[in-house]
Specification:
With 115 residues, chain A is mainly alpha-helical. Chain A is built from three helices and two strands; from the N terminus they run αβαβα. Chain A has a two-stranded antiparallel ribbon with strand order 1-2. The model of chain B has no long low-confidence stretch (mean pLDDT 88). The chains are: A mainly alpha (115), B alpha+beta (146).
Chain lengths: 115, 146
């Protein structure tokens, strides 16, 4: 990547993609008996990604705390998953737009140096 | 790539719900069926779901082993309802017993319709998830285009 901000943004996107996969898995298993909702601690994972260099560790997946279990042992909350789904998509959109703008700025800078 | 696997997860949810919907439609269609190959009236069937690893689009077994477990879903078994059949007095019916009673499936339209509604909503939820992910993928592709 061109600069540390862009590589930070790339890691952020990776983390969003990983979280979106977990959310999709929760939605797919919304009616599987005994399934427990999963999630990652987004803030913590992003901070640990940003502070380490070299090969990235996979985010730690854990069970979502504080959800009510239904009679079949499943505790997926559809409202929560839907909120996370759109939140992740919007965050992703936001960061990709930022990256595009940045690339546009580099391009402009290169063009103006050419004269 | 992670996002493409996410699509497979949603697809597994969609196909599981579709299989369940097929069973429910079969139940409704056979609500008056008195003859089956196993003998006796039709018995209601329902699907049981279980978590299952999704198929890798490019067979990347190695990367799958490294990645965290985010399962899809599949139908693990189809269960037969063991409710007693309803007996109706129809002496002229060819399947009537010696007392004139015919065994009909213990069919509850409300139960089937509620399950059907549930299945179709879950199907829609999986579609929503898949289109959100599709949007994320196309935005990643747009980065190359800028």
């Amino acid at each position: 990547m061109v600069d540390p901000i862009q590589s930070g943004m790339a890691q952020y996107l990776d983390l969003l993609a990983a979280r979106q996969k977990i959310v999709a898995s929760n939605i797919a298993n919304a009616e599987t008996p005994g399934y427990h909702s999963k999630d990652i601690d987004f803030q913590f994972e992003f901070q640990s990604l940003a502070s380490t260099y070299g090969p990235r560790a996979e985010p730690h997946v854990m069970e979502t705390p504080g959800l009510k279990e239904r009679n079949d042992g499943n505790n997926v909350s559809m409202d929560r998953e839907m909120r996370l789904l759109s939140e992740n998509a919007l965050r992703f959109q936001f960061v990709t737009q930022m990256m595009r703008n940045q690339v546009g700025q580099y391009r402009k800078a290169l063009q103006s140096s050419r004269g | 790539m992670s996002l493409f696997e996410t699509l497979s997860v949603s697809a597994s949810g969609m196909s599981a719900q579709r299989a369940r919907t097929e069973l429910l439609a079969q139940n409704i269609a056979n609500s008056e069926t008195t003859r089956t190959p196993e003998g006796g009236p039709y018995r209601r069937q329902d699907a049981v779901f279980e978590t299952a690893p999704v198929a890798q689009p490019f067979g990347s077994v190695f990367s799958a082993a490294l990645e965290t477990e985010t399962p899809g879903v599949r139908v693990s078994e189809v269960l037969y309802d063991d409710k007693e059949p309803i007996r109706r007095y129809l002496p002229g019916h060819p399947d009537a017993d010696e007392k004139g009673y015919v065994a009909f499936p213990n069919f509850s339209p409300i139960e089937e319709m509620v399950d059907l509604m549930n299945a179709s909503r879950s199907f829609n939820a999986n579609i929503t998830a898949a289109s959100a992910v599709k949007d994320m993928i196309s935005r990643s592709i747009d980065l190359l285009r800028s």
